Amino acid sequence: MHKTLMLAAFLAAGPGWAESDIFNLTAAERAAFRAEIRALLLAEPQIVDRALNPQNPAAQEIRQEIEDDQQLLRALETEILVDRQIALFIGTDCAECTRAVNEMRAISKDYGATFTLHDVANPTSAALAERLGMADLPFYVLPGMILRGHIPPVVLRRYLG
Asked: Looking at CB atoms within 10 Å, which of 45, 87, 91, 156 has the fewest?
């Protein structure tokens, strides 16, 4: 990275530098070279930014996916939560679903938390789960997030508190 930056500055300094050995400069040449590099970096600070923060296509793709998911959640929030704090999606072939429903009912009773129950046997709930890209049950939806799988009550209370 540093060699690339030095080479870019060296080439940008002009044709006079092409005749010099960059690694064996006199004191005057080093001072002139530093001045050229400084002037270049002050004029174009994005060179340093690109060198220190290279683009990461995978990270950009993940950020875009997260943004898309959050936008979808905001768009579906009214349908999913129905003015409640949390939504629980369950189904018939789900070993943990009955347990999740019972725990949500206990949390609602003990803490006054309100929840919406979506059974994917209902076509409307199934369509919502499909739009969210969720096939594994149970899963929970809160404003701005989805929690996959069975979540213990002690953890759910932290999200609802």
From this structure: 45
